[in-house]
Amino acid sequence: ILVEQELKDFRAFMRNKGKCLNKRDGLAERTIKNYLARFDQLLRAAWALEGEKTFPITHRIADQLEEALQQDRIVRSNDEPYSRSSKRKFQNTLQKYFEYRSENGGDPWEPTYRFKEPASREADYFRREERSKLREAALEFGQLPHYSSVTPEERDRLKAYLAQKIGRPKGEITRDIWNRHRESFKIPSLVFTALDAALRPIE
Question: What is the pLDDT of residues 108-166, one digit of tens each?
Fold first, then answer.
């Protein structure tokens, strides 16, 4: 009952002034739910660390929880460690909880560890050697061999491929059509233009 009432009061605090204490600016309901879900995880982790159901969370327990996160003793349900970003969100949840407690005469809590994501390059950024490989791959993508350099069986298979690609019956694929599409630079042009303009995939 004590825990349930505390959670109700914590929710009310976040709804009314969880965003900014001075302006009485509340958090969005979705954000509140995220905080409460993480707080529930922290509460259960605290009970596991203490060996009993203790409440409320004290500064000492908050420090223990933070250290356990840092040492990967608090992990996901699949036993994988939390990312640094997730650990930071748990820290934020503890800070938010102690903000609420400070409204009733308690003291704020400050984290000891800094869970920062390591700097990384953009996922859609290509290095110089990667750009060269992309250009080469674009030139080779779907490229047809010389008409006379393949066996009749291979030519028949490739005609079927080309017919499907350009939307025409296989019987209409002549040597001229073969050569015309063999020299097509549509794909390389698209790739080269995207690389030269530094366009990201979304663009």
Answer: 899 998 887 665 544 556 666 777 777 677 656 666 777 887 788 888 888 887 888 78
Buried b / exposed e over 23-45, threshold 16 CB at 10 Å, is eeebbeeeebeebeebbebbbeb
Q: Rounded to whole angstroms, how far apart are CA atoms 42 and 50?
A: 12
Three-state DSSP class for 142? coil
The beta-carbon contacts of 106-113 under 8 Å, at least 24 apart in sequence, are 107/59, 109/59, 109/62, 111/66, 112/63, 112/66, 112/67, 113/66, 113/67, 113/69, 113/70, 113/87
* Sequence-separated (6 or more) residues with CB below 8 Å from residue 161: none
Q: Read off the tokens for 171.
A: 């019987």
Which one-letter DSSP state was computed for residue 79?
S
d(CA 155, CA 48): 69
Of 76, 92, 117, the C-alpha closest to 39 is: 92
Between 181 and 122, the higher pLDDT residue = 181
Q: Residues near 168 by Cβ (< 8 Å), separated by ≥ 6?
A: 177
